[in-house]
C-alpha cells in the first residue's frame, strides 16, 4: 500500500526511483526569492510515531528498497535524536538499504555539532543535497538566501569532515544580465575553497507567482539572460573550477538548455568543447517545451 504524501512533493532528479519518506513538511527557511516549492506549506516536523509507522508500511510494500530520500525541504532541521530513530528504523526494516539522503540548508549543517553529524553518518545518513545557488555574497543577499559565501563553505567542509557526501547545486542566471560575472566568479571562489562530491547546475526559471517578489528583492532592474548568456556562464564556471577534490559534474536537470556530464577537472576540456559547439550553433539545445523545474 503506497504512502499518503502531503503534496506538493519534491525530490532531486537522482532520487526519482527511490523510496521517499516525508519527515518534515515544507521548508524551515522558505524565504528564498527564486523558489516557490514550499510556499503553499507551513513548516512542521511530523510526529515520530507517524514516521515509524510510514517506514514500516513502506517496508511491507517495498522491502527491497536500497535508497531512501527524506523529504521535504530540509529534513536535517530535525533534532538529531529524532533523525537517529528514523535512520535506525529504516535500516532495521529495509535490510538492503545502502543510502539515505536529504535536502539540507547551510544553516541546518552549521547548527549540528561535528559529533552530531558524525553520529548521523554512523547511523546511515550518507548524502546531503545542498542548494548553494551562488557563491557571490551580493547575489546571495539579492535572492534572500539567508547564507553567505563563508557560511556555505564552512557547511560544506563540516559535512565532508563528518564523512557525509555533499551534492551541491548552482543556479545559472541568478545575476541577470548585469551581474552574471560576479555571480559566476563568486561561485568559482566558493567551490574551489571547500570539498564536495557532486555538483549540478540548474537554469533559472521563475514561477509566475514569485516573479514580482524576486524582482523586488533583487533591488534593481533584473533582465533574464537568454540561452546564449547561460552557456557563457556555464563556460566561465567550468573554466574556473579547480576543486579541492575531484567532483562529479552534471547539468542534466530538465531546466538546462544543454545537458552535460563529466568529472572535474578531468573532463574540463571535453565539457568546454561541447559548450563551444553549442555556442556556435553546432549542437542543439533542449527545446523549451521539454524544460521544467
Structural notes for this entry:
The protein is α/β, with parallel strands linked by helices. It has one domain: Aldolase class I (TIM Barrel). The chain is built from 10 helices and 10 strands. The protein has helices at residues 48-61, 80-93, 106-111, 114-122, 137-142, 149-161, 180-191, 211-218, 227-240, 268-279, and strands at 19-22, 24-25, 44-45, 67-71, 99-104, 127-133, 165-172, 198-203, 247-250, 261-264. The chain has an 8-stranded mixed beta sheet. A two-stranded antiparallel ribbon has the order 2-3. Strand 4, helix 2 (80-93) and strand 5 (99-104) form a beta-alpha-beta unit. The two termini are 28 Å apart.
Count of extended strands: 10
Mean pLDDT across every amino acid position: 94
Order of helices and strands: EEEHEHEHHEHHEHEHHEEH
Note the gap between the termini: 28 Å
Q: CATH H-level name... which superfamily?
A: Aldolase class I
CATH class: Alpha Beta
What's the structural domain tally? 1
CATH third-level topology: TIM Barrel
The biggest sheet, with number of strands, parallel, antiparallel or mixed sense and barrel status, is: 8 strands, mixed
Low-confidence stretches: none
Question: Do you know the CATH architecture?
Answer: Alpha-Beta Barrel
Q: What is the molecular shape?
A: globular
Helical content band: 25-40%
Beta-strand content = 15-25%
Number of helices: 10
**In order across it, which strands form the biggest sheet?**
1-4-5-6-7-8-9-10
Structural class: alpha/beta
Amino acid at each position: 500500500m503506497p504512502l499518503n504524501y502531503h503534496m506538493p512533493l519534491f525530490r532531486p532528479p537522482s532520487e526519482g526511483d527511490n523510496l521517499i519518506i516525508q519527515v518534515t513538511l515544507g521548508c524551515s527557511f522558505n524565504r528564498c526569492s527564486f523558489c516557490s516549492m514550499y510556499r503553499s506549506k507551513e513548516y512542521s516536523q511530523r510526529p515520530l510515531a507517524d514516521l515509524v509507522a510510514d517506514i514500516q508500511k513502506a517496508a511491507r510494500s517495498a522491502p527491497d528498497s536500497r535508497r531512501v530520500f527524506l523529504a521535504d525541504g530540509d529534513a536535517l532541521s530535525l533534532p538529531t535524536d529524532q533523525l537517529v530513530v528514523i535512520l535506525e528504523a529504516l535500516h532495521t526494516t529495509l535490510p538492503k538499504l545502502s543510502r539515505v539522503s536529504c535536502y539540507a540548508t547551510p544553516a541546518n549543517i552549521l547548527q549540528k555539532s561535528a559529533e552530531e553529524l558524525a553520529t548521523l553518518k554512523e547511523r546511515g545518513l550518507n548524502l546531503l543535497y545542498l542548494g548553494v545557488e551562488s557563491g557571490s555574497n551580493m547575489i546571495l543577499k539579492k535572492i534572500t538566501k539567508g547564507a553567505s559565501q563563508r557560511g556555505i563553505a564552512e557547511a560544506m567542509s563540516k559535512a565532508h569532515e563528518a564523512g557525509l557526501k555533499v551534492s551541491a547545486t548552482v543556479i545559472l542566471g541568478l545575476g541577470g544580465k548585469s551581474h552574471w560575472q560576479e555571480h559566476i566568479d563568486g561561485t568559482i571562489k566558493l567551490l574551489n575553497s571547500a570539498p564536495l562530491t557532486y555538483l549540478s547546475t540548474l537554469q533559472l526559471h521563475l514561477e509566475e507567482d514569485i516573479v514580482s517578489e524576486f524582482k523586488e528583492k533583487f533591488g534593481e532592474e533584473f533582465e533574464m539572460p537568454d540561452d546564449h548568456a547561460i552557456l557563457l556562464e556555464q563556460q566561465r564556471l567550468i573554466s574556473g573550477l579547480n576543486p579541492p577534490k575531484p567532483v562529479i559534474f552534471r547539468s542534466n536537470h530538465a531546466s538546462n538548455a544543454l545537458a552535460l556530464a563529466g568529472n572535474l577537472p578531468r573532463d574540463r576540456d571535453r565539457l568546454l568543447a561541447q559548450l563551444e559547439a553549442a555556442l556556435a550553433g553546432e549542437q542543439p539545445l533542449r527545446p523549451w517545451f521539454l524544460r521544467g523545474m
